[in-house]
Design brief:
single chain, 250 residues, alpha+beta, 6 helices, globular
Length: 250
Amino acid sequence: MSSPPDEFDIDLDLSSLDPLPTGSVLQKRPSRGASAGQNERREAGPAGVASDEPLVDAGRDLLCVNCYHRAGWAGTSSTTWLRRGVVARLLESVQLDLPDGFGLAVYDGWRSPQTVTALYDHFYGEGSDLEPGYLAPPSKDPDDPDNVDDIDPPPHLTGGAVDLTLSWRGTPLSLGTPFDEFTPRAHLAALESGPATLDRDLRRLLFTVMTEAGFAPYEQEWWHYSYGDRAWADHHGHAAPLYGATSPNR
């Protein structure tokens, strides 16, 4: 992964982009001890009309880094899966709106229950002091990772959550932190309080094109956006998500 270049040989002015929002405007991933009110809201209904939309190979049309498979995490595959509608939105509503020379690079999409569990146990296992919220808890039954919570599955298990960054002439860029650097600098608006930097402006650019295409941002990770999952439904005020848990075999 590369840092953004210091200079561009194209006429690019990002100074007009709005600052990134903070607080209640953005979604926070709930902890296991969610309030009663949150639980009531989540139980309002199962996934909606697009639940049967298939997963497709995002790598056919998008640059996919496939970080977890390359690192050897359990339950991963060589294919980056996303819902068909999510891929279409990234291609038709996001990538085409980027300035010349820029594209998208996908770190990760759908995750198997095994991968969700392995990541959560590694980073939030016994003795961990990591700030909550960087990874969703796995299935409701820790002894059976395939027994998934149908009401509120982990976001990446829906195929609607995508971890991604901008690319410059085909090279993925690290916008202030590497992918999965679970520190305060990874928070979406972490660079807003400092001096104007290219990293800050490129985070703003990614946020602008993704949210204008209907994706929901995530406060703790600049690279995480979603469409059709529970966080997306909450962000846009929908009663239920479009997508529930799925797998490539469905």
